[in-house]
Amino acid sequence: MSIYVNLDLMLVKRKMQLTELAERVGITLANLSILKTNKARAVRFSTLDALCRELDCQPGDLLEYRPHQSKDGEAAGS
Amino acid sequence: MPGQKLTSARLVKTWLDIVFVIGVVAACLITLWLAVSPLVMSSDESPADVAIPVAIGTGSLRPVMALDEAGPSSGGITNPRIVDGRGELRFETPSWAMQFFPNMVLLFGIAVVLYLVYLMRAILATVLEGRPFAAANVGRIRIIGSALIALGFLVPIIEYLVARAVLAQISLQGIAVQAPFDIRQDTVLAGLLVFVLATIFGYGSHLEADKSLTI
Questions:
Q1: Is residue A72 predicted with pLDDT exceeding 70?
Q2: Chain B residues whose beta carbon lies within 8 Å of the beta carbon of residue A39
Q3: Cα(B43)–Cα(B45) distance, rounded to whole angstroms?
Q4: In B44-74, which residue ranges form alpha helices assigned H by DSSP?
Q5: Residue B81 domain-assigned?
Q6: Is B105 inside any structural domain?
Q7: Is the residue at B70 inside a domain?
Q8: Which of A52, B69, B131, B184 sits between 20 and 30 A of B12, alpha carbons compared?
Q9: Within-domain flag for B78
Q10: Sheet holding B48-56, edge to edge
Q11: Which stretches of chain A sit within 8 Å of chain B by CB?
Q12: Do residues B66 and B79 lie in contact, with contact meaning Cβ atoms separated by under 8 Å?
């Protein structure tokens, strides 16, 4: 997957703990960890909405597209 | 899952638990008999019952046994015969080998059925835990399907070989019997059906993984 969730970066910027965000957003810590470690396969709009609201940011601040690098240096798809 | 369906799943699991316990007890008793029978039978030559499946009549594919008419039949009926007749030949024998091998086959059958019941119990346990599409269930269902297909072919082969070996030592008068070879089409079909279910379960398992990783 080439989509990365920059949750840890936003948490540092907002000086917030993952536990606190989990409580504010109403998502379990386990699910938020899945999101933070880029293991999630999909994100609901409602989750994105809650995260943006609590972190006071745009979806683009949380999500980033990083193309996979192949051995010869070319960007490859997922 | 609705409570009603969970209740039926619990009932089926209880029933399978009972079958499993009965099967284990039966397997233990047969194993015990197989273990002590050489010692008991060498000292005691008393005959015991043995049963083997047989096909009645002559001819390989569909055995035919012609019947004698007691008198003229009404309606112009002639040439009565039994076609493709199946039965069980029971006899008494003091021979240890003739008693040992059919019981060995029975033990093998019980072991396979017990393993299938064990897998079904494991599947139902995951259903009761609320995760019926667990990845392990796909493999379990595939094993059940493969076992059913294999049994559909293996059981007739084993039955045929045992019956053939026993019949070679018996001479009967007045009736022709032979070792039957009947592939269990219904068992093979059930196995294929279970394979189709496994494919559907595989897709369900994929969706379940997607769902659990959607935040």
A1: no
A2: 213
A3: 7
A4: none
A5: no
A6: yes
A7: no
A8: B184
A9: no
A10: B85-93, B48-56, B177-178
A11: 27, 31-32, 34-35, 39-44, 47
A12: yes
Q: Which residue of B has its CA nearest to A47?
A: B215
Could you tell me the residue range of the domain that residue B130 belongs to? 3-54+87-173+184-212
Residues of B in contact with A21 (CB under 8 A): none
**Tokens matching residue B141:** 């269902």
How far B22 CA lies from chain A's nearest CA (Å)? 43
**CB-count burial class (<10 Å; 0-12, 13-18, 19+) for A71:** exposed
Q: Are B82 and B56 in contact (CB under 8 A)?
A: yes
- Strand A75-76, strand B81-83: pairing: unpaired
| Lowest-confidence pick of B35-49, B65-79, B124-138, B148-162 | B35-49
Tally the domains of chain B. 1
Task: Give chain B's radius of gyration (CA, Å).
Answer: 24
Identity at B32, one-letter amino acid code:
L
Q: How confident is the model over B107-134, as a mean pLDDT? A: 90
Map tokens 């002559």 to a residue. Answer: B58
